[in-house]
């Protein structure tokens, strides 16, 4: 009996799985030192209005691994989110975004153009998060109104009161909030009214087939209507074609982000010339 249990255990930990677990552990080890070795950097993607003016950029993290090359955030952000590392990493992204804003101001840009950063739900569990953000804003002198925090619906699944309090305190610092990947989460729509949100981001999965899938176009049209009636800004992500952009425009969405306007790139490579 005991022997057959052992056999099945051995079978469960097959060599392939063991190798993948080791690779994951190794990747995490590498990630721990990645910040100090300057392997992490941000690229930025433009957000434009209906006149093609750049209204903001979204900061997206990149990791150039010395052996593996570019590791996508979908692979290493979940690793960081399993441990306290996400706090350090998340604050680093916010600080970089703030330094970018300060740079713009120093170059004479006193517009309302924003920098958006993705914030992991786990970062909200850090009781010192608000104080840290406040500290970064004070230290860098970045205009808080131009810092936009992107959160996802998964944030609202647990501890809604705590999340609401934290968001309200962050709002009091002057920052704004966008709800990313809207429509892909599970939570009720009631939180849209309760939480201090400024913007809905229509998820790219709906934008992708908005022209030829009736469900997607219905979801996108309803999201635009919902945002309008709640007084929220709305932006579509993953806009790849002029046809998608025109459809969105006809249905009342006037802000866009996607490959149609450019790939995420280092700031120095972004062209803001339409401003
Ligand atoms: P997201 O915040 O929804 O970011 C949009 C993703 O769509 C980005 O992928 C972007 O490169 C990609 N994208 C932009 N335009 C298009 C388009 O027209 N078509 C298609 N197919 N894709 C487009 P990326 O950079 O690989 O990031 C993936 C996700 O990783 C992000 O999704 C975000 O959830 C997360 N992430 C990225 N940077 C950070 C970060 O600094 N912190 C945290 N916590 N998460 C991050
Ligand atoms: Mg985002
Ligand atoms: Mg998104
Ligand atoms: Mg996404």
From TrEMBL:
<protein>
    <submittedName>
        <fullName>GGDEF domain-containing protein</fullName>
    </submittedName>
</protein>
<feature type="domain" description="EAL">
    <location>
        <begin position="24"/>
        <end position="275"/>
    </location>
</feature>
């Amino acid at each position: 009996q005991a022997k057959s249990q052992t056999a099945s255990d051995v079978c469960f930990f097959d060599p392939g799985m063991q190798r993948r677990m080791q690779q994951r552990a190794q990747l995490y080890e590498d990630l721990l030192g990645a910040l100090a070795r300057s392997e992490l950097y941000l690229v930025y993607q433009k957000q434009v209005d209906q006149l093609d003016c750049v209204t903001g950029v979204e900061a997206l993290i990149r990791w150039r691994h010395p052996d593996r090359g570019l590791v996508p955030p979908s692979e290493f952000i979940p690793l960081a989110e399993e441990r306290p590392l996400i706090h350090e990493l998340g604050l680093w992204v916010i600080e970089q975004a703030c330094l970018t804003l300060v740079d713009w101001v120093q170059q004479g840009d006193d517009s309302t153009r924003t920098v958006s950063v993705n914030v992991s739900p786990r970062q909200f569990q850090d009781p010192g998060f608000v104080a840290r953000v406040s500290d970064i804003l004070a230290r860098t002198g970045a205009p808080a109104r131009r810092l936009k925090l992107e959160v996802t619906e998964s944030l609202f699944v647990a501890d809604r009161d705590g999340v609401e309090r934290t968001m309200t305190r962050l709002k009091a610092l002057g920052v704004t909030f966008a709800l990313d990947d809207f429509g892909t989460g599970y939570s009720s729509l009631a939180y849209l009214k309760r939480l201090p949100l400024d913007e809905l981001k229509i998820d790219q999965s709906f934008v992708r087939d908005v022209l030829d899938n009736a469900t997607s176009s219905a979801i996108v049209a309803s999201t635009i209507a919902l945002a309008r009636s709640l007084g929220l800004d709305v932006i579509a992500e993953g806009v790849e074609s002029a046809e998608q952009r025109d459809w969105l425009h006809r249905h009342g969405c006037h802000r866009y982000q996607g490959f149609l306007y450019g790939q995420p790139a280092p700031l120095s490579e972004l062209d803001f010339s339409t401003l």
